[in-house]
Specification:
Elements (H helix, E strand, L loop, with lengths): L13 E7 L6 H10 L9 H6 L6 H11 L6 H17 L2 E8 L1 H5 L5 H12 L2 H5 L2 E9 L4 H10 L9 E5 L11 H9 L3 E6 L5 H11 L3 E4 L7 H9 L3 E4 L1 H6 L11 H7 L2 E4 L4 H4 L3 H12 L3 H13 L5 H13 L11
Parallel strand pairs: 1-2, 2-3, 3-4, 4-5, 5-6, 6-7, 7-8
This protein binds hypoxanthine (HPA) and zinc ion.
Length: 344
């Protein structure tokens, strides 16, 4: 146990930039929604479901993640899901969240994209006043489905584009390179959306280069496999391309064996613009501050490094200049006496 002699600093203010709202579905809420919607889950209860959260790779996680979306049926279900996340995120120091959602995981089950966006908006519209968390929504295409489906999804999102700040690319990475989605990314750019993509999680470093050069993305989600290619690292450093890294996710999906072996310290050392995020916190053992704490405990990250990670999260976010300045000022003012040290 850690003993604190000085004032206790709360969690650092930070932005969360890599968070799938469907991945915040806690087992208890899954069962509550299943009951409300009269859906049978093939688990006896929340504890048995939680016990099933043992994954061998990305696909084994995705199978369960998509299965559980069945409980999300109505606008209120999506609002309740987002409320639960935002309340937890606020308690972990999150002051701004850019939230992925997977419309195709819902439209494939007959739930209209309007139900998803209106439901999420019902929560997000009040997030700043209720939780002190500003938000953005990132529409993410499922890369293991055909590119035509992504184009149709973007067209279906037409009436809701004023609610959406960016598009992303997720789901099974290997065998589905970014270039497959060149046309829909061009269309999203033309519609005024910002562009991000998952790349270099399980997929090779070449997917990161392709996401930058073919899709024109501004941020890379995960990106940890860039470390296999020194030339790519040099480019990411030179261009200060943000990487939204998710340490707990990387361990749970076996992209990294142990947190103690995570490349994040080497990434910081290389000068990469790294941020830390929770990805799918219900499934991966913790929310964003839990990831920060894990990095401190398993890898010995210093207060200064954790503060840099928080700072990077604001620099890499899609907020406007005024909000960015406000968030950076809040971080600068936060706990000038770090936790765990006596006041001098
Ligand atoms: N990778 C790919 N697809 C996903 C993830 C992820 O980490 N989380 C939810 N969908
Ligand atoms: Zn992700």
């Amino acid at each position: 146990m850690r003993h604190t002699t000085g004032p206790i600093a709360g969690p650092l203010p930070k932005a969360e930039l890599h968070l799938h709202i469907e991945g915040t579905l806690e087992p208890e809420l899954a069962f509550a929604l299943a009951e409300r919607n009269r859906i049978d889950l093939p688990y006896a209860g929340p504890e048995e479901l939680r016990a099933a959260y043992a994954f061998s790779d990305l696909q084994s996680f995705l199978d369960l993640y998509y299965q559980l979306t069945a409980v999300l049926q109505t606008e209120q279900d999506f609002a309740d899901l987002a409320d639960a996340y935002l309340e937890r995120a606020a308690a972990q120091g999150v002051r701004h969240a850019e939230i992925f959602f997977d419309p195709q995981a819902h439209t494939a089950r007959g739930v209209d994209i309007g139900t998803v966006v209106r439901g999420l908006a019902r929560s997000l519209d009040h997030s700043e006043e209720r939780f002190g968390v500003s938000t953005g929504l990132i529409l993410s295409f499922l890369r293991d489905l055909p590119a035509e489906d992504a184009l149709k999804t973007l067209a279906d999102a037409g009436p809701y584009l004023d609610r959406i700040s960016a598009v992303g690319l997720d789901s099974a990475e290997v065998g589905h390179p970014p270039a497959k989605f060149a046309e829909v990314y061009a269309a999203a750019r033309a519609a005024g959306l910002r562009l991000v993509a998952h790349a270099g999680e399980e997929g090779p470093p070449g997917y990161i280069t392709e996401a930058l050069d073919v899709l024109g993305v501004e941020r890379i989600d995960h990106g940890i496999r860039c470390m296999e290619d020194p030339q790519l690292v040099a480019r990411l450093v030179a261009e200060q391309i943000p990487l939204t890294v998710c340490p707990f996710s990387n361990v749970r999906l076996r992209c990294v064996d142990r947190l103690e072996e995570h490349p994040l310290p080497a990434m910081l050392e290389a000068g990469l613009l790294v941020t830390v995020n929770s990805d799918d916190p219900s499934y991966f053992g913790g929310y964003v501050e839990d990831n920060f704490r894990g990095l401190r405990e398993a890898l010995g990250l210093t207060d200064e490094q954790l503060r840099l990670l928080a700072r990077n999260s604001f620099l890499a976010s899609f907020v406007d200049d005024a909000r960015r300045a406000e968030l950076l000022a809040e971080l600068d003012a936060h706990a000038l006496v770090p936790a765990g040290r006596p006041e001098v």
